[in-house]
């Protein structure tokens, strides 16, 4: 696992409290993860998430994943945990507007110390967000504590790809993304096993590179004005962000970064 010193929860909160978070939503939609709806559906189907279940979304942002699960997988109820006040407020508003406030609730907290009850969920969910968490082993242990025995932990995340990142590439990538660390398939598999879970799926979705292509294409061909508006029409900043996106695109096509899909079952 690669680490970036000096990056923590405060830096992540700053991203999603400000224009950078709005930029990500502009290009990726409310479901701020690679693959959007199709990725969510693939994860839910592989993990057998369905009707009548109660779930917890760790790093839920504005709750788009929870709305997806309630609307399209008929999940009974969801509890989202996120540490950024702006996105929690936005999520509550969006759930209320969708008529889902009674089935979706939010907790403003650090996901490594959520305060939720032991064994209180049928499944724990996450989508491309655990990369922002400093203490990933503690997050996995928290997820295992919250889920019931026999329950499921299902998540996707940005990970180190099969080709691997060298030290310089890793530091530049994590600095741009405000990631305190980036894990690999084996790292997450080990953490899940150490937390008392049976790993059922740990795989590269193969979706990362084509989606970065899509986001850059949208920014360059359709959403330039909208993106500039979000950052106060600062063309120099837009140029710097664009350079980092192109750098990330190269890493993705070289197999150095990827989107991982993980499904595990708590043993006892």
Task: Please give a structural write-up.
There is one protein chain. This protein is α/β, with parallel strands linked by helices. It has a single domain (2-266), classed as Rossmann fold (3-Layer(aba) Sandwich). It is 46% helix and 22% strand. The protein has helices at 9-17, 19-28, 36-46, 64-72, 85-97, 136-146, 167-177, 185-194, 208-221, 224-230, 235-253, and strands at 2-3, 54-58, 77-82, 104-108, 121-127, 147-160, 181-182, 197-204, 257-266. The strands form two sheets. The chain has a seven-stranded mixed sheet with strand order 4-3-2-5-6-9-8, sandwiched between helices. A two-stranded antiparallel ribbon has the order 1-7. Helix 9 (208-221) packs antiparallel against helix 11. It is globular. The mean pLDDT is 97.
Give a concise summary:
The protein contains eleven helices and nine strands. With 268 residues, the chain is an alpha/beta fold.
Write the topology of this structure.
Blueprint: E1 2-3, H1 9-17, H2 19-28, H3 36-46, E2 54-58, H4 64-72, E3 77-82, H5 85-97, E4 104-108, E5 121-127, H6 136-146, E6 147-160, H7 167-177, E7 181-182, H8 185-194, E8 197-204, H9 208-221, H10 224-230, H11 235-253, E9 257-266
Parallel strand pairs: 2-3, 2-5, 3-4, 5-6
Antiparallel strand pairs: 1-7, 6-9, 8-9
Helix pairs in contact: 3-4, 6-8, 9-11
């Amino acid at each position: 696992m690669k680490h970036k010193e000096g990056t923590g929860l405060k830096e992540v909160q700053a991203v999603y409290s400000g224009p950078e978070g709005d930029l990500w939503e502009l290009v990726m939609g409310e479901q701020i993860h690679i693959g959007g709806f199709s990725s969510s559906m693939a994860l839910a189907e592989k993990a057998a998430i369905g009707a009548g279940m109660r779930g917890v979304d760790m790093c839920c942002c504005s709750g788009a994943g929870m709305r997806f699960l309630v609307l399209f997988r008929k999940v009974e109820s969801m509890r989202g945990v996120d540490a950024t006040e702006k996105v929690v407020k936005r999520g509550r508003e969006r759930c209320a507007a969708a008529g889902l406030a009674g089935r979706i609730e939010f907790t403003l907290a650090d996901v490594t110390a959520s305060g939720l009850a032991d064994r209180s969920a049928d499944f724990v969910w996450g989508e491309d967000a655990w990369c922002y968490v400093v203490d990933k082993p503690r997050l996995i242990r928290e997820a295992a504590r919250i889920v019931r025995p026999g329950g499921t932990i299902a998540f996707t995340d940005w990970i180190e790809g099969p080709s691997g990142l060298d030290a310089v590439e890793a530091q530049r990538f994590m600095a741009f993304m405000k990631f305190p660390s980036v894990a690999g398939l084996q790292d997450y598999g080990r953490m899940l096993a150490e937390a008392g879970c049976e790993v059922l799926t740990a795989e590269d979705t193969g979706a990362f590179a084509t989606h970065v292509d899509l986001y850059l294409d949208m920014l360059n061909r359709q959403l330039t004005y909208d993106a500039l508006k979000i950052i106060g029409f600062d063309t120099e900043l837009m140029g710097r962000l664009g350079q980092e996106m192109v750098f990330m695109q190269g890493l993705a096509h070289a197999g150095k970064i990827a989107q991982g899909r993980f499904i595990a079952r708590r043993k006892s």
